[in-house]
């Protein structure tokens, strides 16, 4: 009998083992190529833009992830722990893209050990080394992309603080490698956006963050306003910033560029705070008096749009806090505005997925009377906005003065940035040059922004120290807006749809809610204890006031009884507080046990049953 039971047990175990292997084999066969993303924010589901980019790869692309796995594991640094926890997210994103690329994207992972050839190769290719320890050991978490024509694209460091842009950053690398060459973008700027010498600090200045970002994505060509007579044919997008006193030849070149189908992005401003015209370290008063406005009146008139370079928009609903120069205290400045999602056009691809854009001393646009063109707002104020003369803001010492006599126009919102569409006529109809175009042959598009400060670092990026390196982290979407606009005007919208994804960090909301409820109960008990203590002190004081001077230091029976009563209440309340804490811990432990049961036991069982049922259904369908 015992031998039969033993044989039966062995047979059952053998049957279960065979069944397990069979389920695995069936699952691998039936569900081959099937991918199911059950994460809340669909972390492993690629955006359609990324899928389009992957589908457009013509020649093989290789992405090599350099991650110092061993060195990070040995390091006790908190920064190393952050990198170690983030690296799997990067690997998983690369693997998902490779799986969707149809064999045209190859992913490699390299652990560049200290003092190895891999480490030398990572450094020589431009990856950012993060030093740790005393022995000169470096940590790497970066990506190098190459194609078959020796093209190269680099992500110097996969910054955990930019996880929301991880898919976009990798897709941008693939997009750049799949193109024969970067799109050509022209830049005419009256502001010091490029690297150069700063006359005020007498030191070399770094390029603006937006300039560096545009240089990474495009073939950015800086054009000197005084020498511009035409725009090269291969330039598809032209950016014009602070066109103050722009020569007529340059204006005509812009005019003809737009009429022949070129795409234009214009930044004008009633008060450009970064305009260095007239700046003199020895004469700050002259710099203050210099004109810092810009306009394109001739071109704007031809395009049927109006802009007043002498008026600045105020909006107390969107006023950002600044330090009051008079008192040093924070104060809301109605000319420095922070626009949020509701103020951005949710149907235009340049602003649809953005969360915040900051501007300063901006102007506004409106269609001219009788204009046949279409002006679509991209960024607009609230209906509570108003305008003031630019000179008033320029010489303002206390922002509170703008709020003291604030009187909104009471009309509709003012348009700070817009898309202008239509068939444009030339602003120079009498020009006799050979090949002159009097009007555009097809509808054109221009994006207009009534602020240049939106481009400056102070309104959207901050420099953050990370492992001894300087990393720029965006706190607003100004840079995304400009890049989106150039992407869109250049004819590429795939990258735009990738932005703004959720992070892999999932808060324990249920546990947090439990803790919050427990803390509220805890605080309630503490307030009750404090109230009883106050009542006891009040009663003791009342009893003390009725005693003679000789008996002041001696407790009366009533006082002793009151103190004993308070001590008993204190012990009871503290017992209740401990019970609240224990109850919270028990509830969290119970929740953890339920989750473990579901994850370890129930989910595999359900998957097994589903796989067997699906296999049986396919067999029945085949035999039937």
- How many individual β-strands? 24
- The name of the CATH architecture of the largest domain is 3-Layer(aba) Sandwich
Neighbour order of strands in the largest sheet: 10-7-11-12-22-21-19
Termini distance? Answer: 45 Å
> And the CATH topology of the largest domain?
Rossmann fold
Write up what this structure looks like.
Helix 1 (2-30) crosses helix 15 (557-623) and helix 14 (509-545) packs antiparallel against helix 15. The model has no long low-confidence stretch (mean pLDDT 81). The radius of gyration is 34 Å and the shape is extended. The strands form eight sheets. It has a seven-stranded mixed sheet, sandwiched between helices. It has a four-stranded mixed sheet with strand order 2-1-5-6, with helices on one face. Helix 8 (248-259) links the parallel strand 11 (235-241) and strand 12 (263-267). The chain has helices spanning 2-30, 48-55, 69-74, 78-100, 117-124, 166-178, 209-217, 248-259, 284-289, 297-303, 390-394, 400-404, 478-489, 509-545, 557-623, and strands at residues 61-67, 105-110, 130-132, 137-139, 141-147, 152-155, 184-189, 196-198, 203-205, 219-222, 235-241, 263-267, 305-307, 311-314, 319-323, 330-340, 356-360, 365-367, 374-380, 386-389, 415-422, 444-449, 461-466, 469-474. It has 624 residues and is an alpha+beta fold. It has four domains: 1-34; 48-161, Glutaredoxin (3-Layer(aba) Sandwich), CATH 3.40.30; 181-495, 3-Layer(aba) Sandwich (Rossmann fold); 509-538 and 568-623, no CATH class. The two termini are 45 Å apart.
